[in-house]
Amino acid sequence: MLGAHLDSSAYVSHLQQEIAKVDQAAIQNWADLIYQAWENGKWVYIFGNGGSGTTASHFAEDLGKSTLHEKDLGDESRKRLKVLSLTDNAGWLMAIGNDLAYDQIFVQQLMNYGGEGDVVIAISGSGNSDNVLHAVDWANRHGLTTIGLTGYSGGKLKDLAHHSLHVPTNDMGMVESIHLCLFHWVLNDVFARINHVGRYEA
């Protein structure tokens, strides 16, 4: 826990350094894949454990609501991004964890929902969460596009996923914060493309 050793100024400085290390092309690619899912009417599924699980919920909420102008949310004719966080169905998670195994909680949902061409965003700071890896492996074998968001060394997920957004730092708080920070740019970029504003103004 870096904040236990660094004062706030040093912590913020270190955070800036870590953000600057992230591959810019990987950030753009992340946005491209979500936009392509919207274009093609495909689903985006997001999941992770603990803090990464709540990040998945946050991503899904923002992508579901904030890829349109608020004034357009009542317009039934507007094309929507199909997005679902697999961390939020508590009953299903508990049933799978109890009746099968915890490492099955995401892959079992994907078996019901997922289809060829859908996009999976798998979040794991360590890159080694078995339940995340099982789901990504299944998705890879069934024609879904997988994106791994990782930290530390990237673990197994960094190489298993088709695409990777890696935050190469060894502090979980910073990893999770940077994932969320960069996601908000991705959200803004997808919003701009869907609505033809800002850099994408027609």
In short:
By secondary structure, the protein is of the alpha/beta class. It has helices at 8-21, 24-40, 50-65, 90-99, 107-113, 130-141, 155-160, 172-195; strands at residues 43-48, 82-85, 119-124, 145-150, 163-166. It has a 5-stranded parallel β-sheet with strand order 2-1-3-4-5, with helices on both faces.
Polypeptide structure, described:
- Keywords: Isomerase.
- One of its GO terms (biological process) is carbohydrate derivative metabolic process.
- GO terms for molecular function: carbohydrate derivative binding; isomerase activity.
- It comes from Blastopirellula retiformator.
- 52% of the residues lie in helices and 13% in strands.
- By secondary structure, the chain is an alpha/beta fold.
- The chain has a five-stranded parallel β-sheet with strand order 2-1-3-4-5, with helices on both faces.
- β1, α3 (50-65) and β2 form a beta-alpha-beta unit.
- The protein is globular.
